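Why does residue order matter? Because the sequence determines the fold. Keep that principle in mind as you read this record.
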Amino acid sequence: MDSFSALNTSTPIVFSHGRSVDTDDAILLRRYNHFLGVSSESAHHYGHDHPEAHHLQDQIALGVDTHTTYSTDIVTQARIWLQTTRLKLFQAVTNSWEMPANSPMSVNQAFILATFNGARAFHREDLGIIAPGAKADLVVYNGDSPNMIGWKDPVAAVILHSNVGDVEHVLVDGTFVKRDGRLVGSEIQDINRRFLASARKIQSIYEEMPQTIVEGEYLPGVPYKPLDIVNVVRGNTTGY
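Structure:
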């Protein structure tokens, strides 16, 4: 894109996933202020990793990717990315028979990726923050829920302990879309009914499709390789 002068624009560009980046990519993203949209849970689910992206977190925002496959909330993505990054950098030390003296990434940094950096990726200074003149997009957590009670650091509580059930209120541009733990709107029941009908229709189509036989090569010179199935129960069955 840089060779076509496509990066030199004020229009924000978000590169999906950022599976493999190098120093040249980092230089260009920082020079033109464009972002990677990293979906850690998606990458792991499909057998991918982000081996270099942790070096470029100042130009990273978090994404969800496939809403129909796993969790869809950004906090979960932030938690998975935080712990994955910690593991990667911890192992770089422990694999050399040394002991880490500190944590390489904080909950506050994960929170920034989930909020402020998401706004920066779209060049929006009025999102991702609570400040005068910003959009009134607010998420209010119930700090007295069973998994949140006893917190001292609110950021740590949200990033490490919360789930979507702890979200008490949500305002978008100052208007409630969730209040007292329930979605707001007279059309919610009708939306749910139509969604379920669509879901059942799509599921039935997939159930009737013949199952794909994975064999041969994915690409020339890249053969499919069956994986060993792990065992989680004793006896003649695996639990799979």
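Residues 39 and 63 are 5 Å apart (CA to CA).
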